[in-house]
Design a protein that fits this description.
Met8-like; 32% helix; alpha/beta; 4 helices; 2 domains; 5-stranded parallel β-sheet; NAD; two-stranded antiparallel sheet; Rossmann fold; single chain; EC 1.3.1.76; NAD(P)-bd_dom_sf
C-alpha cells in the first residue's frame, strides 16, 4: 500500500535548490521556473539547456561542487547529479533539516515526488506512476486524450 499524499505546492518566490545541472535537471527546472520558484543550481558544470536558462535570467547558478551550506534558506531540493552517493548525501542532509527533497533516480527514497502533469488553461491533471516516470507519462497521455486535450 502506497503511503504517499498527493499535494500541489505553491513555490512562487520560494528558493528551490537543484544540485546537478544535466539533462534531467534541465527538465525538472522548467516547471519550477514556470511556477515562479527562485531556482538556484549548484553544479561544477552546466548543461546547455541549464546555461540557456541562466543566460535568460530564469535561475541563479553556482559553478562548483555542492556543500551543506547550500541548503541554508532552501525550501525544496532536487538532488539530480550523476552520483547516487552525492544525491543520497544531499537527501540525508535535507532529512536532518526538514527540507523537502526529490532524490533523482530513487523516488522510493524521496520525501517528495514530482508528478507527471499537464495544464489546459487553468485546469491541471497530475498523475503518479508509483515512482515509475514512464508509467506516469503513459497514464497522463491516456487521461489527456480522454479529456480531449490532444
Amino acid at each position: 500500500m502506497n503511503q504517499r499524499l498527493p499535494l500541489a505546492l505553491d513555490v512562487r518566490g520560494r528558493r528551490v535548490l537543484v544540485v546537478g545541472a544535466g539533462q534531467v535537471a534541465a527538465r525538472k527546472i522548467a516547471p519550477l521556473v514556470r511556477a515562479g520558484a527562485r531556482v538556484e543550481v549548484v553544479a561544477p558544470t552546466l548543461s546547455v539547456p541549464v546555461e540557456e536558462k541562466l543566460t535568460a535570467g530564469q535561475l541563479v547558478a553556482q559553478r562548483r561542487p555542492f556543500t551543506p551550506d547550500d541548503l541554508t534558506g532552501t525550501w525544496l531540493v532536487y538532488a539530480l547529479t550523476d552520483s547516487p552517493e552525492l544525491n543520497e548525501q544531499v537527501a540525508a542532509l535535507c532529512e536532518e533539516r526538514a527540507i523537502w527533497c526529490l532524490l533523482g533516480g530513487a523516488s522510493h527514497k524521496s520525501s517528495v515526488w514530482s508528478l507527471a502533469h499537464r495544464w489546459q488553461g487553468s485546469e491541471l491533471v497530475a498523475v503518479s506512476g508509483d515512482g515509475n516516470p514512464h508509467r506516469a507519462l503513459a497514464l497522463l497521455k491516456r487521461i489527456s486524450k480522454a479529456l480531449g486535450w490532444d
